[in-house]
Design goal:
- By secondary structure, the protein is α+β, with helices and mostly antiparallel strands.
- 36% of the residues lie in helices and 28% in strands.
- The strands form two sheets. The chain has a nine-stranded mixed beta sheet with strand order 1-2-3-4-5-13-6-12-10, sandwiched between helices. A four-stranded antiparallel beta sheet has the order 7-8-9-11, with helices on both faces.
- Strand 8 and strand 9 form a beta hairpin.
- The longest helix is centred in the middle third of the chain and has 17 residues.
- The protein starts with a strand and ends with a strand.
Amino acid sequence: MRSTTDIEEFREKAGPALLENPVDNNILLYHTFDPSGLLPGDGPAKPYWVEDSGTVLGAAWVAAPYRLTITDMPTAAASALAEEIAKQEPWVPGVNGPTEATATFATRFAEVAGKTATPERDQWLMVCTDATRITQIPGAPRLGRPDEIDTVAEWFSTTMRDSGMAQEDILRYMKHMVADQVDGDRLILWEHDGAVVGAAGRARPIGGVVRPSGVFVAPEHRQGGYAAALLGEVTARALEEGAEACTCLHFLQYAAMQAVVEKVGYRHVRDLTEYRFA
């Protein structure tokens, strides 16, 4: 079991294993390789990894105040990882990752930390290699501007309303993310008749994979096809600029969004589950 606050060490030790599956491991790769992936938090990130005879079996990204994310790993590794993190980081508010490994982790963490673990959100990891742009939608896409960062961050914050995080933590995370998207020309706003009706952004490519981050449409425009148009636009741009695939998380409780992501060309590749500790 290894942990560190030296991200370069984690990148060296666990990075190659993560890059073997850049779709499944995109979130940890984002934290590890993208400077914007070091999210504003209450202290330095402390990633953990489990290895056996030099082979990395799995990893976790721990950064207060956020819930941690784990990779897929054998159940024995997940149990051992949970036990160590429960001893070292008992504040952890939750965990998200591949369903079987995460269930094992959550059960063991709760036992050691003296907490309860409740599954809160089932998700699909989805991937797209050939995006469909949604045409005949009123208006047109354009790049976001620096003066729009605060507004878009507020919009994107609403997409995390069920995350269990405090609103102020969500907002500082989103301002950080949106500012990076604007700086890299990776934030798209959809404008019609002089009004912005929605926005979507994307992260940098890592291992040939890009993750759209944030899709928001103003309530009064949500029956107009703009969500699919925005997701299709950011996905198509990423693929046209050289990404091999795009990946996204779909929360199954948002049934209407499943039709949107599938219309763009995303398909299910893995089941994920998020747990909360109390």
